[in-house]
Amino acid sequence: MSAPPHSLLDPSIFASLESKLEEETQVRDTLSQIVQRLERAVATAQGLLSRVHSTPRSRYPALVAQVEAAVKEEALIISELEKVASQHPYYKYNHKWSRSIQNAIGTTIYCAWLGGFPAESSSSSPESTSKAPEIGRLLTLEEVGAIFSVPTNLKDRDAFHLTIEEYLLSLVDLTQDLSRLATNAVTLGDFQLPLTISAFVKDLFAGFQLLNLKNDIIRKRADSVKYEVKRVEDVVYDLSLRGLIQRPSAGDTEMESA
Amino acid sequence: MAGGTKRDYDGNARAKSTQELPRGRFHAMFENFRDELDEHYDRRERIIKASRDVTAQSKKIIFTLQRVKQPNKDFPKGIQQDIDTRLGEISKLLSGITADVQSINRYRYGFSLRCLEELVEALSFAHYLRHQTLITLEETQAAVPADIMLTPHDYMYGLFDLFGELMRFATVTTAQTGELVGDYERNISSDIQELGCAFEMLPQVPTKDFRSKMEVMRQSINKVEKLGYGLVVRGSERPKGWVPDMKDDDPRPASPV
């Protein structure tokens, strides 16, 4: 087709737009496939984690070992995701994966909370076999990044990473599940765990209160943390009312001397 | 944050510390998050403000351009001056946020930076009026008075809005001159059709935004086609200065920006 001497548009304009749109479609498809697999891996880890509600504390280590393995599966897929995603502007496609990544972070910090992913050089008592894993430890964003072998909170270059927002949202999810766990621990006769959970959730709540949140998703989700705090407090209240636990913060309470 | 001081039964401020000293556990971490998030919120705020003003200036450029009577000529002095002043204004506004939208942050705040679409609309309209050709992405980028990268998305969605402007321009000039304006054996009706065909040939983007822009584009083309029809059918009877019914003239659903 011979272009008239003075034509409206240079055909290369739309040829280039077309190829860009096609590339975008391809990138989206590729990402969707990876994210789908990640979702399956996350679902597996979450499924395992849901067993914690009917697992006595003595059997946590066995459960945690399984979850750790599931998290490592997630890590493999995330590193695949990183390779593809880092070839494109991060915020152009991050909506494709941010929810799944948030959930993956959630499984990791929950696993660690239950005693998984022990800190590398447990400085305290190097001899003691890690028989009694520490319950209630919070992985930092950086530690999660290290487990997944991806960077966190990148600002100086445009590549795949875990964001603060994803981490904060996963903390909200964690408080939700812990408040459920507080109830179920009591049912299994573990009256101490609710105290650990209560202190932890309150600390997190205090943390969230430090943020100057705008009217966005984090605020909406973070607002729910106070209800979880309350639910756990109710459990602790029920227990202390019936004398089923020693009040942790001694002093004013009349501790039984025996 | 605002909650008052909790007091005990005797009215003494309750020592929050008993419950809240342990909060120190995550205090530092959350303070760090707060700083990071504040930085992000502040940056977004700056971008939104500048973007709103750039949008307003771009719209005014477009209004000015709609007063052009004849395409393919240098703009009248007043109009050119007006455009230059406003572009200067836009340049100032954009240079204030240039640092905020570099590298990873370009797409992060893409939504807040919607003014670029409006700017593309203005630049492409000016280019069409002056040259009767479609501005390229590179030419548009060169015309953006700031060191901010234009994405193909900005360009494409800006062009979508060009249809509405072409339609308005065609309507007014047809009423004034009694013919569809244009040179080079083309006129604005065939141009808008050709441009529409080019968009129709593009792979469809499965978003609501894209679909609605396409729909509005078709309506604009349709209106210009009706102008041509009107000229042929009742051209001779049309009293000078007759303006077609403009009641559903505004093609854009009231846009939030």
UniProtKB/TrEMBL annotation, chain A:
GO BP term, example: RNA metabolic process
Cellular localization per UniProt: Cytoplasm; Nucleus
Pfam family, one: Translin
CDD domains reported for this sequence: Translin
Chief subcellular location: cytoplasm
Keyword annotations: Cytoplasm, DNA-binding, Nucleus, RNA-binding
Sample GO molecular function, one term: single-stranded DNA binding
GO annotations of cellular component type: cytoplasm; nucleus
Stored Gene3D superfamilies: Translin, domain 1, Translin, domain 2
Protein family membership: Belongs to the translin family.
Name listed for the protein in its UniProt record: Translin
Annotated source species: Trichoderma asperellum (strain ATCC 204424 / CBS 433.97 / NBRC 101777)
UniProtKB/TrEMBL annotation, chain B:
Matches recorded under Pfam families: Translin (PF01997)
Keyword set, alphabetical order: Cytoplasm, Nucleus
Gene3D superfamilies reported in the protein's UniProt record: Translin, domain 1, Translin, domain 2
Subcellular location, record wording: Cytoplasm; Nucleus
Keyword Heme: no
Span list, region Disordered: 1-21, 237-257
Signal peptide: none
Location, primary (coarse class): cytoplasm
One GO location term (cellular component): cytoplasm
Gene Ontology MF terms: sequence-specific DNA binding
Biased composition (Basic and acidic residues): 1-13
Family classification: Belongs to the translin family.
Protein name: Translin-associated protein X
Species per Swiss-Prot/TrEMBL record: Trichoderma asperellum (strain ATCC 204424 / CBS 433.97 / NBRC 101777)
Lineage: Eukaryota, Fungi, Dikarya, Ascomycota, Pezizomycotina
